[in-house]
Amino acid sequence: MSNPRYPEEFKIQAVNQVTEKKLPVADVAARLGVSTHSLYAWIKRYSKPQAERQQDDDQHAELRRLRAELKRVTEERDILKNRLPGAPRPIGLETLRSTLILLDSGRWLFGGLVPVKKLDPGEAADPLVVARSVTPFRKVI
Fold this sequence. Notes:
Helices cover 54% and strands 8% of the residues. The protein has helices at residues 8-19, 25-32, 36-46, 50-81, 93-99, 127-132, and strands spanning 100-102, 108-111, 134-137.
């Protein structure tokens, strides 16, 4: 059985009965059919001015967003940190761009992070050496 949702006007009127008319919380809660715990929470929330309440709501929303982002980032970090031994290291986009090789056939190949052979300036890479050290990818550009 779910708890009923009450409109904000209902909550404000209940708080006004306690704060302005000085009625006991237990009597107001029993007459309205809500728990005293809920009524005390409403008093805590709705006894503040509207501007202060809005500021509190904004702060709570920002806190929820930051906690969700922290949880996501922590999970991503743990996945990367706890990868299986021997699994390839994750690479960034810049590394990927710098290691793509376009072959004469029009296919892109992704070179390994460690070069097979250091090339002298102006020296062309041997296609057989490159082909053994790369994994084929579809042409992106």
